[in-house]
Design a protein that fits this description.
The complex is a heterodimer of chains A (166) and B (359).
Chain A (H helix, E strand, L loop, with lengths): L1 H6 L2 H136 L3 H17 L1
Chain B lengths: L1 H24 L6 H16 L4 E8 L5 E7 L1 E5 L3 E5 L10 E3 L2 E6 L2 E5 L25 H26 L7 H20 L8 H18 L11 H18 L2 H8 L6 H47 L2 H41 L7
Antiparallel strand pairs in B: 1-2, 3-4, 5-6, 6-7
Helix pairs in contact in B: 1-8, 2-8, 3-5, 4-9, 5-9, 6-8, 6-9, 8-9
Classes of the chains: A mainly alpha (166), B mainly alpha (359).
Keywords (chain A): ATP synthesis, Cell membrane, CF(0), Coiled coil, Hydrogen ion transport, Ion transport, Membrane, Transmembrane, Transmembrane helix, Transport
Organism (chain A): Ulvibacter litoralis
Pfam families (chain A): ATP-synt_B (PF00430)
Chain lengths: 166, 359
């Protein structure tokens, strides 16, 4: 200890303190501050870049799921459209069928009516023709019969009977 | 670390013992004692500060001791400011005459003497007439200046590169991981995320300063700064002052009125804690000083052994040992810088620690 105290040099201590404190102050201004700030800025930059990369990744994932959703929606829409189209098609077909049926029915009904009226007309004509024929025949018969007065009378009688019956 | 210091001192002790043993064995050789004394003197001289920057010395063919180096200015205050070149002191051998006063350097200190340069001793065998107001630019002061300049140029240059881009260039690439290490593994864990920034300039400066100056001590230039108690005191004092002046209420409360213990204990603990605030930086001072001093003594002694053995087996073994120790000292140079920084951060952390309910 005695040796230590004896060896102690106040001048060296003085210069040491002076130079060292000066060195700390100068280095703080010209070296440590800019260096540490640059390192911090760089670290913040790296951290920011990593964060934004992570964010971008998440966004990508979101986008992907969005795409998937859109695709699914489109698929569902297509499906429903197809279904609708199919329904419309079948409805149209059945409608057409029904209409055709109705039309056919109508045509058939009309035809039946026409046939009926034609039949009636034909029957009427037949009746007329039968009447005229029968008249002719009658005329010829009458002409023949009238040569005999008895027969004439009898004929009239018979005719009258027949007429009432008819 | 105390253990390490202890190991060091123990190895020094062992060495000194073995040194004396070999001294007894080899006394028959003429001049071997002279060699040993010379080595001893050389080591003790190396550990001391000196007034001139002396790289090495040798005896020329005329038997005169030649010094290779350059003189430095001596600045003293003794009846007025006196400045003169250390070449006047002639490596402790001459007497410098300045304004009618005579000065002589002896073991790295300056004394006022008579014209003949005779030193008078007191009863403790200390020379009298020491000049205390000695502000000379000694070898250590000069080295501190050079290292400070070097550190300043190194890091201000590194800072310039950051203005151009986010990545360091050149040597800065090697330095940045160390800066990051000090920030992430020393400052932030010990001081805390919120307050560490305030201490970063000091922690970084002290780490690089101690490390580089320790490394310079391992070069063959014979520079030895951190084994000087005045230097380590300076560093420890700054740590102490920073701790004391930035401490918060919580820190002083823990020192003077320890919460959570009964009041008689508080009274007993207060002086102990108060003493602790001084012992902490004191241990910083002693640790750095003792480790570097011990390292230098052991290393130089083993190098000296090579010359004492003077046979191929002993000398080559000494060489191997010196080589291994040099590698160890390389580690110690960084380790001591790390420990000084780490413990300073720890003390700062205690000073600014926020109040916890757990106490």
């Amino acid at each position: 200890m005695d040796k230590l105290i004896n060896e102690f040099s106040f001048g060296l201590f003085f210069w040491m303190l002076l130079i060292f404190i000066l060195l700390v102050i100068l280095l703080r201004k010209f070296a440590w501050k800019p260096i540490l700030e640059a390192i911090e800025t760089r670290e913040d930059g790296i951290k920011g870049a990593l964060d934004s990369a992570e964010k971008a990744k998440l966004e990508m994932l979101n986008l992907q799921s969005d795409n998937e959703k859109l695709l699914q929606e489109a698929r569902a829409e297509r499906e429903s459209m197809m279904k609708e189209a199919r329904e419309i098609k079948s409805k149209m077909v059945s409608d057409a069928k029904e209409e055709a049926q109705a039309e056919a029915n109508k045509i058939i009904a009309n035809a039946q009516i026409a046939i009926e009226s034609e039949k009636k007309a034909a029957v009427a004509e037949l009746k007329d023709q039968v009447a005229s024929l029968s008249l002719e025949i009658a005329t010829k018969v009458v002409k023949d019969e009238l040569s005999n007065s008895d027969k004439q009378l009898k004929l009239v009688k018979d005719l009258l009977n027949d007429a009432t019956l008819n | 670390m105390q253990k390490k210091t202890l190991t060091r001192l123990l190895s020094v002790f062992l060495f000194v013992v073995s040194f004396n043993m070999t001294a007894e064995v080899t006394t028959e050789g003429e001049g071997s004692k002279d060699l040993k004394t010379e080595i001893k003197e050389y080591i003790s001289h190396h550990l001391l500060d000196s007034y001139d920057f002396n790289l090495y010395s040798h005896d020329d063919e005329n038997g005169e001791h030649q010094y290779i180096g350059f003189p430095l200015p001596v600045i003293i205050y003794d009846d007025g400011l006196k400045v003169f070149s250390s070449s006047k002191l002639k490596h402790d051998k001459g007497v410098a005459e300045v304004d009618g006063n005579y000065y002589k350097s002896y073991h790295g200190k300056l004394y006022k003497t008579n014209a003949a340069g005779e030193l008078t001793y007191d009863e403790d065998h200390h020379p009298e007439g020491r000049i205390h107001a000695d502000f000379s630019i000694t070898k250590n002061v000069f080295t501190i200046l050079v290292v400070s300049l070097l550190i300043f140029l190194m890091f201000s240059n590194m800072a310039k590169h950051y203005k151009k881009g986010p990545m360091p260039k050149g040597f800065g690439r090697a330095l940045e991981p160390i800066i990051l290490y000090i920030r992430n593994d020393i400052a932030i864990p010990n001081i805390g995320e919120k307050k560490y920034k305030r201490y970063m300039p000091y922690l970084l400066t002290v780490f690089f300063f101690v490390w580089i100056i320790n490394l310079l001590g391992l070069t063959p230039l014979g520079i030895n700064v951190t084994n000087n108690i005045a230097v380590t005191l300076g560093l420890a004092l700054i740590t102490y002052l920073l701790t004391t002046f930035t401490a918060n209420k919580n820190y002083w409360k823990h020192v003077f009125w320890m919460p959570g213990v009964p009041w008689p204990m508080k009274i007993i603990l207060a002086p102990i804690e108060l003493l602790g605030t001084i012992i902490k930086p004191f241990s910083l001072m002693i640790r750095l000083y003792a480790n570097i001093t011990a390292g230098h003594i052991v290393l130089m002694s083993i190098i000296g052994l090579m010359f004492i053995f003077e046979n191929w087996l002993g000398s080559s073994l000494s060489f191997l040992l010196a080589f291994a120790l040099s590698l160890l000292e390389l580690l110690v140079a960084a380790l001591q810088a790390y420990i000084f920084t780490m413990l300073s951060a720890l003390y700062f952390g205690a000073a600014v620690e926020e109040h916890h309910d757990a106490h």
